[in-house]
Amino acid sequence: SKDRDLEIETADVAQFAHEVIGTIETRMRGANIACRTQYHESLGEFDIDRELARTALLNILENALEACIEDPDQISHRVDYRVRSEGDDVLFEIADDGPGMEPDQIKKIFTLFFSSKGKRGTGLGLFITHKVIKQHGGSVRVESSPGRGTVFRVRLPRKPPGRVA
Questions:
Q1: Beta bridge pairs of residue 47
Q2: What span, in angstroms and rounded, lies between the C-alpha atoms of 58 and 81?
Q3: Which of the chain's ends, N or C, has fewer CB atoms near its CB within 10 Å?
Q4: DSSP string spanning 68-128?
């Protein structure tokens, strides 16, 4: 989780979003998890560190995949991946219909070394994800409740702090 300067480049939002989900879509299908994507029209471009932002979003998607796989209460699952523009921001929503989280878990998920996966988790993934999103001048929010799944909302500005439009 060492800090590094962002390597900012201009990227087409729809193309970037498609690349991110394309990395994990096959694994989802293999696990019998439906992956629904929705990209709003006219997404345009934004300035991001492509590799870091991709890693941050993939971490959330992988967590959704794992939560669905490990849910003993349902046989089939779904992950929704939605991308839309909101003013000067791009909003990525990742929603799953997995087991959800307790409120005390939600409060801790971005804390270094906190893992809800027991010995299988390092507690680094969401900590780093949060850090990368903040470094871009964005935010990440989570809503979840037991038995109702989880929704992550990642908001990234089209121009990170210090970048002139």
A1: 10
A2: 11
A3: C
A4: HHT-TT-SSEEEEEEEEEETTEEEEEEEE-S----HHHHHHTTSTT--SSGGG--S-HHHH
Q: What is the pLDDT of residues 92-135, one digit of tens each?
A: 999 999 999 888 888 888 787 656 655 555 557 898 999 999 99
Measured distance CA(111)–CA(115) in Å, rounded: 9
Smallest CA-to-CA distance from 111 within 93, 101, 125, 94 is with: 125
Place of tokens 């480049």: 9
Q: How far apart are CA 148 and CA 157, in angstroms?
A: 29
pTM comes to 0.89
- Least Cα distance to 108 among 122, 121, 127, 92 occurs for 127
Per-position DSSP letters for 21-59, written without gaps between them: HHTTHHHHHHTTEEEEEEE-S---EEEE-HHHHHHHHHH
Alpha carbon 33 to chain centroid, angstroms:
17
